[in-house]
Amino acid sequence: METASEPQIRSVSRPQATEPARPEASFWPAEDTFVRRHIGPSSDEIEAMLERIGCDSLEDLIDQTIPAAIRLKRPLRLGDPRGEHELLAELRRISSKNKVLRSFIGKGYYGTVTPAVIQRNILENPGWYTQYTPYQAEISQGRLEALLNFQTMVADLTGLPLANASMLDEATAAAEAMFMCRAVHEQARHTFVVAEDCHPQTIAVVRTRARFAGMKLAVLPTTEMLDVLGRGHLASGEDVCGILLQYPTTDGRIEDYRSIARAARDCGALVVVATDLLALTLIPPPGDWGADVAVGSSQRFGVPMGFGGPHAAFMATKTEYARRLPGRLIGVSRDAHGNPAYRLTLQTREQHIRRDRATSNICTAQVLLAIMAGMYAVYHGPHGLKQIAERVHGLTRTLAAGLEQLKQEVRTAAYFDTITLETEGSARRIVDAARRRGYNVGWDGSNPRRWWVSLDETATREDVIELWRAVVDVEPAAGPVPCFEEIAAGLSAPTIATRKSAFLTHPVFNRYHSEHELLRYIFKLMARDLSLCQSMIPLGSCTMKLNGTSEMLPVSWPEFSSLHPFAPADQTRGYQTLFRQLEKWLCEITGFAACSLQPNAGSQGEYAGLLAIRAYHESLGQQHRDVCLIPTSAHGTNPASAVVAGFKVVAVACDAAGNVDIEDLKLKSGQYRNSLAALMITYPSTHGVFEEGIREICRIVHDAGGLVYMDGANMNAQVGLCRPGDIGADVCHLNLHKTFCIPHGGGGPGMGPICVAKPLKKFLPAVMTDLGQYLAQKDHPIGPVAAAPYGSASILPISWMYIALMGSAGLTRATQVAILNANYMAARLKDHYSLVYCGRNGRVAHEFIIDCRPFQQSAGVTVEDIAKRLIDYGFHAPTMSWPVAGTLMIEPTESE
Fold first, then answer.
1. In the prediction, which pLDDT does 28 show?
2. Spatial CA neighbour of 420 closest among 199, 198, 250
3. Helix or strand or coil: residue 57?
4. Average model confidence (pLDDT) for the chain?
5. CA–CA dist 266, 797 (Å, integer)
6. From CA 75, how far away is CA 70, in angstroms rounded?
7. Listing from the earlier edge strand, what are the strands of the sheet with 879-880?
């Protein structure tokens, strides 16, 4: 039996010696150390598995698996394993450094009320947050129906017939829409025009994406936009592929864009509208006045702000653009018995199959958050949503009328929830007075007299009065605090244009309005899915491991979940402490010098890492370096990310053993020596092997002037044993939703931080924590790649908890056991199936591929038949036909 002081972190040899006598003072370590909870096999089971594969110890197995030349020669410097109770108390102390004020800043982020039935039974329920992406429809019917609800909600509210099953954030969705506009025009038009009154973070991300993709971006007032559309091109002659409008605008105005939409249609440009779902319950939807695409965030539909994420963004469009739509699209089919069945009609992999012809690199989506937002609409229904919107609008009108009485000039004519004001004195003094009363309101420093307020679902009568009092605190001569009842009673009829079309008419949005009924609906759908609650999910390349409950608890703490991403820095010190520690730990694990936590998906990490490489070459005056070498075995996101980052993709062959063909690499590196920018490589390889020639591979690329990008998808086989920075890589992204225990959430959220070598440090994505920085800082080498400064910040405590709980020895032990589990399964199966690829000594890494093609040849049984039969028996099938057709790729992880 393992003792509390030795939580399964020592090596196990065969035969195992008797446990040493316990020292007298051994009572003091915490009993609830997490390592033994996280790692599935017991010491006896580890010993039995080692015996089955013919190894004396875990160290013996690792020596046979990982090339000695790349082995880490010392333990990671991450401290000892920790107890769960102790560590939660420490994180509580860190979180208490955050100050939770009422934030009425807006800019796409709003306070919201998460119905308790949704928070407890979806957000905090492993039956919903531990599934993988619903590629296997038979065991994903609950999620697929919930996502169809989300799509229907978005399509109805935007007035456009087709919506996808969520995006990463509003800014990224706008950038994807820009690429979609170019793709609709068959890459013949490369100019995109953005209204200057879009959210500043959206403009910044779209600018980043346009610059590196070879597109011209013009940010203009809408008045000038009409002139451009009248000509059909910019003054310099570039034809316009699309325009982006904000509706309502970032300062709160509701504009009539029908004339702009007509002008765009006349010149062949598409109209993209970034919009607000709650506002669309009251104002005419974009589809009704000529928009081609609508994007935005569903955050205010019951998903906490979380210092920026995760939140489900959306994209809706016309049916003729269905094949251009990035992300996933859920459809309804009929099964063999005529019953309705949900499936992925259009999925991300269709983009990735295109490889270097892809127009999007989106992989994960914010599925869990989309389900929450869809359930929020199911719970409230059309009348409930409209009532919430009318209350928000009514409170905003009351606030505006009272502020006018206090001599604040309301600069916004028609508005929904946001008013921009001008004061006779100092706006900063009003903002500071509001903070002293517990409120954050908007001010960016661009105009010393101008400030703004964005109310939301959480706003109350008392909040309005307190904001009036803040003005009186600074400007007592403006008059007494107005009487709320008198102001509200004296309001005239609303002046905003009103929506005429119906929405959310489907029965699902009109049936489950009592908590009892919604609870039953949530659990009915959950029962149609397969998650880690029911079964191992042995998907190769996906690393589905335990998402420990102690790791998950802090996500719901208000100190992490209730902060606005642009809250003042003195209110976010707890987050800053967590970020600094997590960045330091990830650098230690990878062997790199610096880390960015901003990319909010693995695909965005790939993109950000490649941009760092591009910017590095540009800084040396080598803009011509634009070729990216990618092995044919690479993940589909690799070539897609390279294309989106503006690279030309050149494939490198693999040899018969599944490794990079070094001779072909030498040939291609020599051929493109003057233009080579990077090599993208996954390690251990996608074939489940630690390639012996990895250092030579890195040297060949460096000698040709390129840098090495290492895809961190398989980092679960490296932690504590070897490090990308030591191997020779220059940049690496990390899937925190794989190796570092953030749940996959049924297909998202994810986080994809990047770690880089010292020369690339200054080329990490721009972190703009203050809205004023978007106005002042436009010359950053890259710019931001996500809407929020730290991506999906509220789920970073999960990985912080995991690393701190496991400590250096625990993380290393987890990697060893993951490799052991894979080799044990391979040993048990190899007499019945051929292993497609093995390393030296016949060992595999943390995953392996078995060949099922002989069964199709001999008996007509396909890999899909095997997968479906596993499903019949309640098992999640492994990864099918990837990276090799007709095979199964299996990854057990250390938790099984």
1. 53
2. 250
3. strand
4. 93
5. 50
6. 14
7. 834-835, 848-851, 887-890, 879-880
The secondary structure of 146-210 as a DSSP string is HHHHHHHHHHHHHT-SEE-S-BS-HHHHHHHHHHHHHHHTTT---EEEEETTS-HHHHHHHHHHH
Taking alpha carbons only, the member of 581, 588, 564 closest to residue 796 is 581
Q: Which helix (H) or strand (E) holds 421?
A: strand 418-422
Name the band, by pLDDT with cuts 50, 70 and 90, for residue 10: very low
Q: Which residues of 6-17 are buried (b: 16+ CB within 10 A; e: fewer)?
A: bbbbeebeeeee
623 class by beta-carbon count within 10 Å (0-12 exposed, 13-18 middle, 19+ buried): exposed
Residue with tokens 């709650």: 278
Angle, alpha carbons 593-595-596 (nearest 5°): 155
Nearest C-alpha neighbor of 325 from the set 150, 157, 184, 169? 184
Q: What is the mean pLDDT of residues 477-493?
A: 93
Nearest CA to 774 out of 206, 296, 363 is that of: 206
Tens digit of each residue's pLDDT (9 = 90 or more) over 518-531: 999 999 999 999 99
Exposure pattern of 681-701 as b/e (b: 16+ CB <10 Å)?
bbbbbbbbbbbbebebbbebb
DSSP 483: P
CA-to-CA distance for 290 and 139, rounded, in angstroms?
39
Write down the residue that tokens 């390349």 correspond to. 541
Amino acid present at 610? L
Question: Residue 853: CB partners within 8 Å, gap ≥ 6?
Answer: 863, 885, 886, 887
Contact 401, 491 (CB under 8 A): yes
- Over residues 158-166, the mean pLDDT reads 96
* Position 451 pLDDT exceeds 70: yes
Q: How confident is the model at residue 347 (pLDDT cuts 50, 70, 90)?
A: low
- What's the chain's Rg over C-alpha atoms? 28
Locus of tokens 């589905």: 544
8 Å CB contact between 895 and 40: yes
Q: Identify which has the larger pLDDT, 362 or 14.
A: 362
Q: Is the pTM of this model over 0.90?
A: yes
Distant-in-sequence, close-in-space partners of 712: CB < 8 Å, separation ≥ 6? 590, 605, 724, 732, 733, 734, 735, 739
Closest-CA residue to 341 (of 489, 168, 140)? 140
Looking at residue 531, its pLDDT comes to: 96
Q: Give one word for 290, left, alpha or beta, with left for phi > 0 and alpha for psi -120 to 50.
A: left
pLDDT in tens, 376-431: 999 999 999 999 999 999 999 999 999 999 999 999 999 999 999 999 999 999 99
Rounded average pLDDT over 226-251: 88
Q: Where are the alpha helices (DSSP H) in 406-460?
A: 427-436
